Amino acid sequence: MALPAHFDLNEWFIVVSLLILYPVMLSLPKRFPHAITIFMFFFSLTYSQLVDHLLAGKFLNLYDINDKPKYELMDFIGWFIYPPFGYFFVYLYDKWNIKGLYTLLYLMAWTVLSICIERITVMVRFFKFNHWNSWDSIPVYLGTLSIYLLVFISSKKYFAKIKVESGKNLI
Amino acid sequence: MALVVFSTLTMLTIIYFAVNSHQLNKLELAMVFLIITYLNSNYLDIVFLNFERIEVNKEPGYILAFYTNALLLCPFVITWGIDRYFGISSFSKKTLMTLSIMLVLLGLEYLAEWLKTYHYEKWSWWQSLIKWLAIWLVAIFGTKLFSKILLKELRQ
């Protein structure tokens, strides 16, 4: 993997974000089984990487990440910013027991928050837009957050189901 | 042609996968799929962007065929293989299963090149074999670890 051309604002943004996000995530009281947390962590990591791969890749090249159009070490590290965000998103959804129409409002609020964070990433040159602007991100974030929520709800339900079944088998 | 071949093969694999009984539960299967996709996507980024060893045909149909093969078909084949692998107890059968999956994956790569979806620059088949074997082994290790955590929590 290529090393950064200069260790400047975008690299510091990644380092500081990770240093803030992970301690906060790990210090939160446990709400879900570890299996669900690990599963959602990997889902977030893989999903974000695939979307960036498709949109920022060689074919569409809608934006660049970090210093070079090549795959850099800091790109790899930078993708670890997404899972804590995903975790906070489902953690609060679960904690506040959001249902019905409030789910739509919750998704819209997180989309606005994501756009605001994206603007910061553009300012620190983590993202460099070629044929993209933040308006284009609105449907992407809405879709991504909805998919993320669906996967979380389904996996949590499935875990509860197999827990009941395994309990019956033990009896 | 390439898109028709790979999308048909992918659909057949997914249907076969869906109607078959499984050794692993759905959460474990989804986890295996994620691990494989994550590893393969990272590998493709490095080989594709940094080393420029893969030259993908620029026509949209070929690009779609390339992604269908790399992000759906191959991960589904490996996930199916790992699911079967966990149902086998003898070492010789496990080795045979590993070899069979490697052959299928190499065959798919050969087919993709033959259909002119992409071609490798300065590449040899054993490099692909090492890649798939590494992904296979890491996925098996990851699945074992995840299953252990899951089982522990189900018993609590």
Question: Characteristics of this structure?
Answer:
heterodimer; A: 171 residues; B: 156 residues; mainly alpha; two-stranded antiparallel ribbon
Molecular structure report:
The complex is a heterodimer of chains A (171) and B (156). Chain A is mostly helical and 171 residues long. In chain A, 71% of the residues lie in helices and 4% in strands. In chain A, strands 1-2 form a two-stranded antiparallel ribbon. In chain A, helix 2 packs antiparallel against helix 6 (134-170). The model of chain A has no long low-confidence stretch (mean pLDDT 90). With 156 residues, chain B is mostly helical. Chain B is 79% helix and 4% strand. Chain B is built from five helices and two strands; from the N terminus they run H-H-E-H-H-E-H. Chain B has helices spanning 2-19, 26-50, 60-85, 91-114, 125-155, and strands at 54-56, 118-120. In chain B, helix 2 (26-50) runs antiparallel to helix 5 (125-155), helix 3 runs antiparallel to helix 4 and helix 4 (91-114) crosses helix 5 (125-155). At the A-B interface, helix 2 and helix 6 of A face helix 2, helix 3 and helix 5 of B.
Secondary structure topology:
The complex is a heterodimer of chains A (171) and B (156).
Chain A: H1 9-27, H2 34-56, E1 63-65, H3 73-78, H4 82-95, H5 101-123, E2 127-129, H6 134-170
Antiparallel strand pairs in A: 1-2
Chain B: H1 2-19, H2 26-50, E1 54-56, H3 60-85, H4 91-114, E2 118-120, H5 125-155
Helix pairs in contact in B: 1-3, 2-3, 2-5, 3-4, 4-5
